[in-house]
Each structure stands twice: as structure tokens, then as C-alpha cells.
Amino acid sequence: MVNGWFTDAPEGFRLLGTRCSACTAVFFPREDAWCRNPHCPGGGALVEVPLSPRGRVWSYTDGRYRPPAPYVSDPDAPWEPYTLVAVELEAEGMVVLGQAAPGVTVADLAVGMEVEVVGGVLNEDAGATWTTWRFKPVEGAR
């Protein structure tokens, strides 16, 4: 898990961003040092905010091969294709990239489809569980 990027609170799984108090720009991944908006009038305080739990598919593709060098990939581990989804979050209007939930393939997605962010497991090794966010279609969305 990347600390501070998401929370699995009682109200549901949410990505966490930061909002500049001067210009109201929202950032994900979060920004804790300064406002990245070049048009910000004063670089106000950055406050943690939960991001929209839903959005619409902006684009998607599938990953069918192991990452090439220099990226780390265990050649002895089984390889499973995965689906990547770019989602425009409802309120923020920003596009966030993530994997689709298990079982969701490119055949299940369409540009403009409503999806929601959910928690998921990226990897488990030596007793450690690496959690992440995933996107899945909202029931009845098409």
C-alpha cells in the first residue's frame, strides 16, 4: 500500500488527494509540499480530501505481456494479463489510471461507462500484502 493514497474507511474505499486552499486545484497522487498549479495565486495550504468514488471510463486497454527491462518482473512467476482503465472522476474532472477489478476485461468496458473505485490486492509475498485501488463497473451501468 502507498501510504496516504487511499483509505478503506467505514463509508467506503476512497482515493485521497490534496486540494490547494488558494486556487482549489485538486491533485492525485497527493501533493504535500506545494501547489502544482502554475496559475495558483498564492500557494495556499494543501488539505487532504477524499476523491469521488465514481467516475466514467475515459479510456482502457489490456496488458498482455510482461514488462520489458529495466522494469522488475519475476520471470519464474506466472503472468496474468490485466486490464488498465483511465477514469475521469465525477466531481474533480481529473483522469486517474488504475487496474480493473479481477474478472473485468476490455470486453466488459465502454468509454463513458460509470465505474467505481474499490480496494484490491496487487501482490502478496513473504507474508506482506500490497493493496491498491481498482475500478469496476457500477451495477447496471453500460
From TrEMBL:
It comes from Streptomyces katrae. It holds the Pfam family zf-ChsH2. InterPro entries: ChsH2_Znr, NA-bd_OB-fold, Thioester_dehydratase-like. Residues 14-46 form the ChsH2 rubredoxin-like zinc ribbon domain. SUPFAM superfamilies: Nucleic acid-binding proteins. Transmembrane segments: none annotated. This is Benzoylsuccinyl-CoA thiolase.
